[in-house]
Amino acid sequence: MSETPIPAELAARLRTARRVAVLTGAGISAESGVPTFREAQTGLWARYNPEELATPEAFRRNPKLVWEWYTWRQERVRQAEPNAGHLALVEMEGRFAEFTLITQNVDGLHRRAGSHNILELHGNLFRAKCFSEDRPVESWPDGAEIPPRCPRCGGLLRPDVVWFGEMLPTSSLRAAEHAAVTAEIFFSIGTSALVYPAADLPFNALAAGATVVEINPQPTPLSPHVTFSLNGAAGKILPALVAQVWGDAGSHS
Ligand code: BV8
Predict the structure, then answer these.
(1) What is the pLDDT of residue 35?
(2) Is residue 253 very low, low, confident or very high in pLDDT (cuts 50, 70, 90)?
(3) Where are the alpha helices (DSSP H) in 94-230?
(4) Residue 252 and residue 14: Cα distance in Å, rounded?
(5) Which CATH number among 3.40.50.720, 2.50.20.10, 3.30.470.20, 3.30.1600.10 corresponds to the domain 35-79+125-161?
(6) Tens digit of pLDDT for each residue in 160-182?
(7) What pLDDT is recorded for position 40?
């Protein structure tokens, strides 16, 4: 018997649902060893608050420090592997007519796990763009200067992530809003539901009449509003959910 039984009513709805959307946050990568956004930073970075570093002001003030923080995070993610929670979401995407995976994470682990229809609301740690032109840069000459410079205009390169105070990519946000208001079932997994406008999405889904499921070991501001609250680690609950709803993984009915 799986240690985290999924409510029978939720299992029944999942077996008949056609359109499902999922919002993930840093918590789904926690079991891959990637520190969540609000967990204490370790070592050199312990003295910094991520919300102070992840801003254009911090980059203008100290571009080298911010660039090196992202280089440190890239190394942490390179050493990480997708975990059972990421893999269960790959299994789930094949079970519905429409499945949209919306992530706040910039670690690229959903793609490495094999997910397809992914909306990266906050960008990606491994992409860079020109700070002056605000346009992606695929490659740049190896050099001592940190941050490197844009090969087109000589401006500083920056990570292609959305910082606090910056707009989210319009197309991804619009697609995420559409997925949230058309989903029959909306999952909010591993997010503290504090960062907007991503944190609006589960409320948009609720307002449109969706069944909203939260998976998190801790309560969040969303918890009192959801239809089902599964308290525990995503890496345990999601595989248990897939096994209970569809039998052993991989046996497509
Ligand atoms: C913007 C990329 C506007 C960079 C990130 C109201 C409306 C609109 C905006 C605002 C608003 N109020 C305030 C704002 C401003 C701000 C905001 O929301 N601030 C918050 C802090 C109050 N929003 C913005 O600035 C956004 N931009 O709104 O622009 C605008 C308007 C006009 C003109 C110009 C601009 C931009 C937000 C994007 C910021 N960038 N990341 C980088 O990564 O370096 S956000 C950052 O936080 C990460 O992406 C992270 O994913 C995200 C959210 O955090 P979580 O993912 O939830 O992670 P967290 O650590 O918080 O929580 C982890 C959870 O996992 C916990 O609940 C834990 O219990 C759980 N967990 C732990 N282990 C497990 C687990 N769950 C499951 N299994 C486990 N094993």
Answers:
(1) 84
(2) very low
(3) 109-113, 170-182, 201-207
(4) 14
(5) 3.30.1600.10
(6) 999 999 999 999 999 999 999 99
(7) 60
Angle of CA points 13, 14, 20, to nearest 5°: 110
Write the Ramachandran bin of 69: left for phi over 0, alpha for psi from -120 to 50, otherwise beta.
alpha
Kindly report the CATH number that applies to the domain delimited by 1-33+82-122+168-253. Answer: 3.40.50.1220
d(CA 223, CA 245): 23
Query: Which residue matches tokens 């500083």?
Result: 156
Identify which of 4, 22, 37, 237 to mutate to test ligand 1's pocket (most ligand atoms within 8 A of the CB).
37
Residues with CB under 6 A from ligand 1: 25-28, 30-31, 36-38, 54, 104-106, 122, 161-167, 190-192, 194-197, 215-218, 220, 233-235
Q: Let me know how long the chain is.
A: 253
C-beta atoms surrounding 172 within 10 Å: 18
